[in-house]
């Protein structure tokens, strides 16, 4: 207690002379910069996100101003100047949740006085809480007291990882838990064997900390003095971060070690060699009379210990062990033990608990796989609750039992066959333990592409890469793969080994290859295993790292070794990248046949490519190599020492060069002179069940390769994939129910000596388009309260996460003044408005910074940075889409600040930040920066916009990614307006493509000063195709900004009267920065624009086709009002109908009739629109007055009734085959009708199915 009093006194003394300054998130940075030594910044509640620099010559305290609401620190602390000396930071009463991987990350910083963390909650530190990188300097003390540290270490590394020499570390009265991916708590990253370190770890609770046995709470190894002092006292240290591992409390050489009254459970001990002294007197569960360490709910942070427990007094001098905050005193304690029934069915949290008699306690049951929670009961079998979690009042000692039911489980077996089976792979979604699924589950089985296999077909001859299977019984599937002829390859999918590594793939077991990293002197070393994303493409990879001191004279190099005997046409393919300046501009791929003399195969110029993209580094070995020379081939990736570095690296930098996806392809020698003979095709000749997206595979009697004649199908040239005996042609977006002819011409396929297959013509038909499942919208938003929600955000919040089918939200006409954020996990939101002129989502906000005194500050009232504003800490946009697969139509998105003020600053109406966003018949209105596209995380996110209106004046369509905009108006609001300001990263495939759009504007914008765009950053791309310009554009067309565009160009631009615009004066030379210049093309030819198609930009490899979202179904025919009932004929492919009266939506139905309220209105007041399966609305049908007699036309759709496990189909003819199948064609039940009604007895089903009767079909959802 004397020690505790003294510490408190010292801290009190330090505060007595301090100046206390109240700050909020806006004033914080200025106050921090101007703070003096000892000043205390009292942080008001809020989020603090602006990073700061470590202080120099002063200690600053950041302290919560509130005792109840903790300020949230998201910023990082940095420093890169050795002049920063003798500074310190104290954090007191804060919640620290860094937005980056590190919290304190300083490089070239001098001595640090102290870093103290008091009464704080720390969470979600991905890598290091403290990381320093400047050897030769020191940190006086690092202290944690009364802290909670939880849920950290997702990206590995050590919590405290200093290269500074640390004099003292103390951790007291704190709880550290859930660090499964992290390494040590403290690791000394530099050596000073004269440093006598003091390490104190006292009264802490540690749970699930550190991922491996080679880690420790304190790991100094040989780096500090053998006279260092290590004290561990009164701690509870239980369970490693990864089960089965045994990380240590301490790993050191030498030292004076004291271990007093620590309870260590399933954890390592003191790994100390040659200790100067060692006094360890720790506790055991047995010695305390305990059978287990029974915390109520440790995984969720409940480490309660009752005051009567031996743990409450087991410490030195009768103190508790562990963090004292968890000691709990009860006046009239009652105890609960929990259990699962049956025992193997699951688990219950807490395992045991003690509460005050009469208090409530909450229990959570977690089912093991194959079981389902049923109910809670007490020890006598009495039911207590069916809720989970359940909150129960506890009045006595009792037992609470979670009862589980066993589920009916079925097993899915997937066999792999064919020459490529060894390397073929499939994924199952959902994944299941032992591939056992609850009966009725629909499992999606997907082929995983890899560089050495070609998927051919499934056992039913279908060729979709993804299929579904209904687990109504044990199921068995077979996927056939062929092998793409290769010798060896490395994809680095697993990190180890990181040197002397056989091929991850090899065709022959006696030729497995080898890949190593070599020092310049020829000795081998290990590379760094990594996973990196450049240009939106991610690869597992190997890092080559040469120290900056050696990079110019003695660089390391990768070298692969294999045999190519009996092969020809040998291709070496690889991907390379760089992420720092310590890399040579020129990189070489070389070959050798003796391992000594190397010849260049390829030279890659990486100038300007730091962290921009993965670059193909490919080559073909000389055809002149003899079989003897091919018996051993060496390939190496080495810098060209005659080239410069990419920049000026720091003295302690290491090379950041990456190698990925390395494969050696080759054709085996084959002297068979006979032409290939066709054995089979998939689909077969005359098939009527081909899918709209699939693969046509030809299987031959011998190994084949590509000939010289191209294959054209459905107007597209198709590039084949050749296996050893197969040629596969992948197609996409065929029409439903259509006959096709695929011609494989003579000369398209040959054997390995060049003899051609004579060709064949294959005929097949695609399956008919099925009717969609009849259903209404999932949610209706109405500002007047007549819907399910009054705000759009509320409807999105209520939408389920992880969707793979559209979640339909209808928004009635109204003014929705709100910010709307679609979170990343809410994919497939389809937001459908009633009328874009009357359905308006809007708000008044901007992102302007605080103006200087005396400046116009009107915008500041609406700034998201102004603590006094109602939009304080809002996202800087009215609407932000963080999820994939978003679609919207008939809505206006408006930023009121931009429209009302007709001025800046930045005021976004829309921000789309993920892949596959589509908009139809929408308006986007603001002034500056109306719409930001894409994300820094992926250069190739896609946005599709058609028949829309974009309004603004300054850079009002800007950002990155691929955007295909067609039949849309760009409306300019001022003289000198600029439409786009792209910032496309390297590796962006298309950029902004505008086709058949219109450029227009108000009277101010008709003065001929408007600009098509300016290059913001990086490598911008914008192409205007077939544009109608209703207002004159400046002759130069474009203007300068912050980069040289990769492409700013036009084709076929016309004035408002349809006359060609003179493009001869368009700008081609750009200047930015300090006079840097560059050029790009301004006018495209007809041949150059052919590639800019919807199919290339939008559909790409995953066949995304948003145009089908807005394919209108026919409006309802024969709409009549008879009395108080509207009725109409069904619209083919409609899922439901929306009923309107005087432009107000009054109902929605799946039926073809609707009862309207008595109103006396004329029939013409009523309209009905049909909705397609994506929510898009038809044109309206207006009602006429009925006569009471209708001339009915029979609805051709199938009539289906479902009663329990019986499915009845009405209105069929005798002799018609009736088939129920999954959406990929897997037949569930089938029979031939004998009358006009067919009844099928069904298994338990879940998901979407297609019922087909003759030539009619309908989708059904179970």
Automatic annotation (TrEMBL):
GO terms for cellular component: cell outer membrane. Residues 778-1066 form the Pectinesterase catalytic domain. The keyword Signal applies. GO terms for biological process: cell wall modification. Residues 1-18 form the signal peptide. GO terms for molecular function: pectinesterase activity. Pfam families: Big_5 (PF13205), Flg_new_2 (PF18998), Pectinesterase (PF01095). Keywords: Aspartyl esterase, Hydrolase, Signal. Belongs to the pectinesterase family. This is Pectinesterase catalytic domain-containing protein.
């Amino acid at each position: 207690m004397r020690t505790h009093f003294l510490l408190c006194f010292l801290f009190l003394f330090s505060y007595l002379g301090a100046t206390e300054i109240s700050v909020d998130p806006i004033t914080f940075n200025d106050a921090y910069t101007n703070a003096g030594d000892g000043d205390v910044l009292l942080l008001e509640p809020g989020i603090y996100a602006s990073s700061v620099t470590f202080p120099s010559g002063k200690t600053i305290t950041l302290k919560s101003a509130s005792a109840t609401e903790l300020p949230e620190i998201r910023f990082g602390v940095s420093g890169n100047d050795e002049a920063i000396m003798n500074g310190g930071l104290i954090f007191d009463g804060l919640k620290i949740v860094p937005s980056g991987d590190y919290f304190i990350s300083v490089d070239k910083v001098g001595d640090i006085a102290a870093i103290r963390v008091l009464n704080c909650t720390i969470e979600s530190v991905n890598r290091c809480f403290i990381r320093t990188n400047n050897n030769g300097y020191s940190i006086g003390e690092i202290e944690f007291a009364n802290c909670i540290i939880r849920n950290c270490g997702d990206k590995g590394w050590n919590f405290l990882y200093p290269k500074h020499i640390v004099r003292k570390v103390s951790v007291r009265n704190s709880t550290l838990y859930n660090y499964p991916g992290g390494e040590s708590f403290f690791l000394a990253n530099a050596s000073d064997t004269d440093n006598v370190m003091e390490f104190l770890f006292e009264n802490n609770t540690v749970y699930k900390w550190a991922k491996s046995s080679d880690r420790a709470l304190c790991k100094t190894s040989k780096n500090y003095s053998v006279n260092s002092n290590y004290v561990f006292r009164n701690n509870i240290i239980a369970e490693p971060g990864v089960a089965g591992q045994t990380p240590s409390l301490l790993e050191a050489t030498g030292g004076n070690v004291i271990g007093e009254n620590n309870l260590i459970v399933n954890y390592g001990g003191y790994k100390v060699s040659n200790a100067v002294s060692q006094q360890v007197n720790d506790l055991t569960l047995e010695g305390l009379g305990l059978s287990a360490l029974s915390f109520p709910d440790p995984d969720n942070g409940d480490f309660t210990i009752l005051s009567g427990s031996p743990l409450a007094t087991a410490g030195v001098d009768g103190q508790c062990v562990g963090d004292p905050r968890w000691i709990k005193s009860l006046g009239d304690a009652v105890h609960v033990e929990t259990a699962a029934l049956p025992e193997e069915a699951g688990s219950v949290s807490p395992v045991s608990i003690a509460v005050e008699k009469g208090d409530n306690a909450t229990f959570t049951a977690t089912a093991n796989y194959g079981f389902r929670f049923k109910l809670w009961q007490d020890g006598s079998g009495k039911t207590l609750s069916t809720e989970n979690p359940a909150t129960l009042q506890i009045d006595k000692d009792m037992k609470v039992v979670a009862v589980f039911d066993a589920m009916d489980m079925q097993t899915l077996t997937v066999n792999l066959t064919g020459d490529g089976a060894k390397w073929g792979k499939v994924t199952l979604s959902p994944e299941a333990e032992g591939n056992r699924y609850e009966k009725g589950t629909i499992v999606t089985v997907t082929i995983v592409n890899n560089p050495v296999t070609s998927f051919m077909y499934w056992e039913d001859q279908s060729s979709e890469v993804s299929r579904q299977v209904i687990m109504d019984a044990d199921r068995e599937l077979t996927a056939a793969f062929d092998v793409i002829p290769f010798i060896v390859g490395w994809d680095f999918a697993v990190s180890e080994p990181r040197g002397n590594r056989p091929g991850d793939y090899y065709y022959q077991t006696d030729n497995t290859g080898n890949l190593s990293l070599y020092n310049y002197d020829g000795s081998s070393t290990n590379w760094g295993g990594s996973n990196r994303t450049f240009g939106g493409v991610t690869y597992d990879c190997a890092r080559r790292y040469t120290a900056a001191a050696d990079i110019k004279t003695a660089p390391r190099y990768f070298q692969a070794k294999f045999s190519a005997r009996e092969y020809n046409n040998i291709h070496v393919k690889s991907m390379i990248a760089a992420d720092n300046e310590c890399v040579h501009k020129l990189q070489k791929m070389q070959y050798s046949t003796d391992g000594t003399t190397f010849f260049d195969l390829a030279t890659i110029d990486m100038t300007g490519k730091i962290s921009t993209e993965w670059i193909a580094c490919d080559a073909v070995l000389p055809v002149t190599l003899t079989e003897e020379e091919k018996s051993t081939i060496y390939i190496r990736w080495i810098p060209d020492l005659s080239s410069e570095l990419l920049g000026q690296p720091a003295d302690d930098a290491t090379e950041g060069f990456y190698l990925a996806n390395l494969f050696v392809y080759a054709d085996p020698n084959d002297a068979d002179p006979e032409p290939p003979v066709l054995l089979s095709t998939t689909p077969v000749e005359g098939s009527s069940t081909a899918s709209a997206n699939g693969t046509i595979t030809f299987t031959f009697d011998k190994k084949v390769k590509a000939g010289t004649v191209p294959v054209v199908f459905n107007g597209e040239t198709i590039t084949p994939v050749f296996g050893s005996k197969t040629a596969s042609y992948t197609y996409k977006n065929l029409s439903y129910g259509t006959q096709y002819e695929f011609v494989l011409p003579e000369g398209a396929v040959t054997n390995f000596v060049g003899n051609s297959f004579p060709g064949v013509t294959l005929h097949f038909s695609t399956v008919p388009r099925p009717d969609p499942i009849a259903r209404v919208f999932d949610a209706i938003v109405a500002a007047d309260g007549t819907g399910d929600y009054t705000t759009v955000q509320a409807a999105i919040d209520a939408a389920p996460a992880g969707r793979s089918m559209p979640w339909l939200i209808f928004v009635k006409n109204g003014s929705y003044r709100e910010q709307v954020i679609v979170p990343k996990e809410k994919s497939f939101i389809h937001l459908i408005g009633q009328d874009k002129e009357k359905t308006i989502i809007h708000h008044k906000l901007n992102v302007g910074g605080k103006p200087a005194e005396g400046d116009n500050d009107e915008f500041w009232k609406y700034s998201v940075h102004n603590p006094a504003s109602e939009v304080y800490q809002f996202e800087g946009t009215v609407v932000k889409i963080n999820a994939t697969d978003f679609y919207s139509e008939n809505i206006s998105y408006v930023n009121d600040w931009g429209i009302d003020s007709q001025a800046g600053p930045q005021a976004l109406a829309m921000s789309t930040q993920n892949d596959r966003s589509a908009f139809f018949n929408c308006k986007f209105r603001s002034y500056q920066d109306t719409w930001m596209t894409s994300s820094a995380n992926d250069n190739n996110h896609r946005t599709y916009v058609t028949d829309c209106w974009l309004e603004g004046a300054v850079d009002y369509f800007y950002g990155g990614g691929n955007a295909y905009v067609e039949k849309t108006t760009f409306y300019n609001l001022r003289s000198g307006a600029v439409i786009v300001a792209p910032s496309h990263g390297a590796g962006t495939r298309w950029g902004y493509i505008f086709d058949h759009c219109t450029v227009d504007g108000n009277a101010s914008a008709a003065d001929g000063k408007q600009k098509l765009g300016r290059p913001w950053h990086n490598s911008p791309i914008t192409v205007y195709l077939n544009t109608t310009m209703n207002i004159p554009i400046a002759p130069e067309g474009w203007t300068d900004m912050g980069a040289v565009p990769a492409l700013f160009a036009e084709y076929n631009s016309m004035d408002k009267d349809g006359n060609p615009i003179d493009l001869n004066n368009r700008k081609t030379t750009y200047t930015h920065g300090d006079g840097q210049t560059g050029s790009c093309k301004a006018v495209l030819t007809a041949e150059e624009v052919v590639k800019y198609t919807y199919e290339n930009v939008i559909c790409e490899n995953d066949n995304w086709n948003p145009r089908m979202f807005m394919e209108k179904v026919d409006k309802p025919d024969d709409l009549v009002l008879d009395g108080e009932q509207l009725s109409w004929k069904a619209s083919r492919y409609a899922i439901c109908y929306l009923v309107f009266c005087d432009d107000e939506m009054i109902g929605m139905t799946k039926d073809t009739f609707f009862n309207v309220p008595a109103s006396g209105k004329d029939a013409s007041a009523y309209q009905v629109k049909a909705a397609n399966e994506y929510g898009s609305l038809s044109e309206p049908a207006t009602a006429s007055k009925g006569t009471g007699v209708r001339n009915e036309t029979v609805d051709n759709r199938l009539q289906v009734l479902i009663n329990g496990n019986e499915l009845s189909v009405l209105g069929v003819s005798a002799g018609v085959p009736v088939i129920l199948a999954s959406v990929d064609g897997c037949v569930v039940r089938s029979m031939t009708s004998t009358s006009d009604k067919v009844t099928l007895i069904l298994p338990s089903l879940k998901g979407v199915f297609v019922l087909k009767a003759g030539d009619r079909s309908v989708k059904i959802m179970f």
